[in-house]
Amino acid sequence: MNDRCLHAVALGLMVCAWFAADRASAYCQMTTQGGTQIGTSECNEDGAPLVWSNPCLSYAIDYRGSDWMDFADVEAAVDASFETWEKADCGNGSTPNLIFKPSITPSECQRPEYNTTGNVNTIAFLNPWEDPCPDEDDPAYDPMALAVTIVWHNQQTGEILDADIMINDQRATRTSAGGPYANCPDEGCPPGNPGDADLASIVTHEAGHFIGIGHCDPSLPSCVEATMFAVAERTSVEKRTLAQDDRDAVCAIYPPGSLTESCNAIPMGGLQLNCETTDSGNPIACNPTGSVSSGSGCSAAQAPGDTRVTLLLALLGLTVLWRRSGQRDARS
Ligand SMILES: [Zn+2]
Questions:
Q1: pLDDT tens figures, 218-277
Q2: C-alpha distances in angstroms, 158 versus 152, 212, 326?
Q3: Hey, is 222 helix, strand or coil?
Q4: Chain-centre distance of CA 45, in angstroms?
Q5: Ordered domains of the chain (ranges, CATH)
Q6: How far is ligand 1, taken at its centre, from the CA of residue 318, in Å?
Q7: Tens-place pLDDT, residues 49-91
Q8: Closest alpha carbon to 92 in 256, 302, 290
Q9: What is the pLDDT of residues 189-224, one digit of tens each?
């Protein structure tokens, strides 16, 4: 396959000097040409906006979980994080046209992956913090990143096809981000060395990327308090609560609509919880140099020009199926 069709863009974070945008809202939707908005430049609105065409979305947490928390506590933090976006107040009691269905069965996918033959929007903890699928454009994860979100999308239309969240599970040091993680009390995690980081705050930020929201423009006052501000303090819990700018973003991108709990959250190509081996146990190489045997990426009709954007949340700087009651019918 043509490896130029699938490529990674790794974006840095933490910037200080954006230029003022001529609008009150500071949020920045990701686009097929954007993504630089999470680096040092202003919000780039060129290209097609990234958006899920069917915003009935599933996710699955990798069964290996985190070294720092019980799996049930990880599930609680992750589910609360996605629910925060789903239940955002869009005015008059309305909420965004988004439904998340966490998987009953954990994923077995510890790397970002998109295949036309089946997918899982996986949430995996990595220790060591190494990119499982490095390539020329995305050679390594930033050691200062707490997490990255990889948003696979159609490069022409901007339709999001898959999103994967990788969380840095190494112990943090003075020169690297990472654990320990906790579900912190409302007043914040106690200070320490390095001190716990609030997992829900990290995942709520990454869940914003999962649905196509980039980092807000920090030159505007409304950004600084936002979940989608690129930086936060390690022990803070502020990012687990949306600010008005975050609500403006999700309500504009997914305006209140008609999705119901009976919607279809099966990923593109079908649910495939295991991304690393085939059903017969043969290893699947990382995208884009390898793919499932029936082909993926550019060679398949479903995925012309698919690409991915990797978003980081560093130093403080960061979601899948049907676990909620009454939603088991959506499993496949
Ligand atoms: Zn981010």
A1: 888 888 899 998 887 888 999 999 999 999 999 999 999 999 989 999 998 888 898 887
A2: 9, 10, 32
A3: helix
A4: 20
A5: 1-327 (3.40.390.10)
A6: 5
A7: 999 999 999 999 999 999 999 999 999 999 999 999 999 999 9
A8: 256
A9: 998 888 899 999 999 999 999 999 988 888 888 888
What does pTM read for this prediction? 0.82
Q: Is 73 helix (H, G, I), strand (E, B) or coil?
A: helix
State the distance from the centre of ligand 1 to the C-alpha of 85, rounded, in angstroms: 15
Measured in degrees and rounded to the nearest 5, phi and psi for residue 309 equal -125, 130
Three-class DSSP category at 329: helix
* 326 CA → ligand 1 middle, Å: 32
Distance 91 CA to ligand 1 centre (A): 26
Q: Per the structure block, which two tokens stand in for 294?
A: 């029936």
Q: How far is the CA of 204 from the centre of ligand 1 (A)?
A: 10
Q: How far is the CA of 88 from the centre of ligand 1 (A)?
A: 19
Ligand 1 ion: nearby residues, β-carbon < 5 Å: 311, 313
Residue 35 is predicted with a pLDDT of 56
